[in-house]
Design goal:
two-stranded antiparallel ribbon; 397 residues; 68% helix; single chain
């Protein structure tokens, strides 16, 4: 066992965990005050749901023995046989805990689509199904020895597995649940932008563990991932701010949204690209994610808090950018700029598969849950607000 690497992975696990309430705070500030508690609670619920599912069978489906490239076997149900042992010099349980947080934050991101109108009980059932049938298979295909990894697709820290899947799942879920009442008719402005900025700060902070910890060692690869993570975030923030400034005023919400776009895009590439490439990746991410948001608004689609625009769109760009900018100077992979067309093709394939699979399966799951349980609260409950109707609490007295 490498004690230094073990300590770094455990610390990174804690950093990723703090991102989950960070998502809750980020989303909470952007909804009306009558739904502030409910948005934060959804992120905590995601962590609770996935923690149990992951131990019981989620980890085994993702990282169990490969079954024809499609899914992991159930040989690790209940973490059987994993209480001892190591993976690359760290305890297996440290890897289990680290990956658990990735699954949990993916479900937390999806809550963007159902802000201010979802039944808590229905979300719990949907979350269990989504993690099992969408996240776990994708994790196996890319990280668990499944068919996409066999074809050469790479994803350092989750651009395909986490961000494309959650972003396009949010889009599908928003289409099923429908618009918030009053959307497009009267103002649904954020009630507390400073709260959103605090959430963004926690996300930016935790992302160093998200990407740096994915090296699974305290080494130069972790240092590279750590550095390019911050660089891409800064570039994304400046790009979004510049794009929005041309069309009006440079809002603080746009600034941090651009930072998150840059973080999303660098996630799959963090262990494969150098700092100069990270600047380009972040700049492009800030611009295209801003354009995706304006496109959503133009089309009148109420994917309320823009998981699709930022995580889905940014994740696609990040996966493709990995196939363009990956360099042997950082890792054993090279991209299109260095003559490796095959890697670029593998990245395009992985991104396309993740988009289609996540959107389609989520759409079906949402339809099923809506048919039997109802995804949406009543009109009266929506009017009163989910803080009162779902939790019996108020954010502000």
């Amino acid at each position: 066992m490498d004690s230094g690497s073990t300590a770094w992975v455990l610390a990174s696990t804690a950093l990723v965990m703090i991102m989950i309430p960070g998502v809750g705070l980020f989303y909470s500030g952007m909804v009306r005050k009558k739904n502030a508690v409910a948005m934060i609670a959804l992120s905590f619920a995601a962590l609770a749901i996935v923690s149990i599912q992951w131990v019981l069978f989620g980890y085994s489906l993702s990282f169990g023995s490969d079954l024809n490239g499609i899914i992991g076997s159930l040989n690790f149900v209940g973490l059987t046989g994993l209480l001892t042992g190591e993976i690359g010099g760290i305890p297996t349980l440290a890897f289990v805990a680290f990956q658990l947080m990735f699954a949990a934050i993916s479900l937390a991101i999806v809550t963007s689509a159902i802000a201010e109108r979802v039944k808590l009980g229905s979300f719990i059932i949907f979350g269990l199904l989504w993690t099992t049938l969408v996240y776990d298979p994708l994790a196996h295909w890319v990280w668990g020895g499944g068919w996409l990894s066999q074809l050469g697709a790479i994803d350092f820290a989750g651009g395909t597995v986490v961000h494309i899947s959650s972003g396009f799942s949010a889009l599908a879920l928003a289409m099923v649940i429908g618009k918030r009442r009053g959307f497009g008719e009267h103002s649904l402005e954020p009630h507390n932008i400073p709260l959103t900025l605090v959430g963004a700060a926690l996300l930016w902070f935790g992302w160093f563990g998200f990407n740096g910890g994915s090296a699974l060692a305290a080494n130069g690869l972790a240092a590279n991932a750590f550095l390019v993570t911050g660089i891409a975030a800064a570039a994304g923030a400046l790009a979004w701010m510049g794009a929005s400034w041309i069309n009006g005023k440079p809002s603080s919400l746009g600034l941090v949204s651009g930072a998150i776009a840059g973080l999303v895009a660098i996630t799959p590439a963090a262990g494969f690209v150098d700092p100069l490439s990270a600047i380009v990746i972040g700049l492009v991410a800030g611009f295209i994610c801003y354009r995706a948001l304006t496109f959503r608004l133009k089309k009148g689609l109420d994917e309320s808090l823009d998981a699709w625009a930022i995580h889905g769109t940014g994740g696609i760009w990040g996966a493709i950018a990995t196939g363009i900018f990956a360099t042997l100077a950082v890792n054993k992979y090279s991209g299109l700029l260095y003559g490796n067309i095959a890697q670029f093709g593998a990245q395009l394939l992985a991104a396309s598969v993740a988009v289609v699979y996540a959107f389609t399966v989520t759409f079906v799951l949402a339809k099923v849950v809506d048919r039997f349980l109802g995804l949406r609260v009543t009109e009266e409950e929506e009017y009163v607000g989910l803080d009162i109707s779902q939790h019996g609490e108020r954010a502000y007295n």
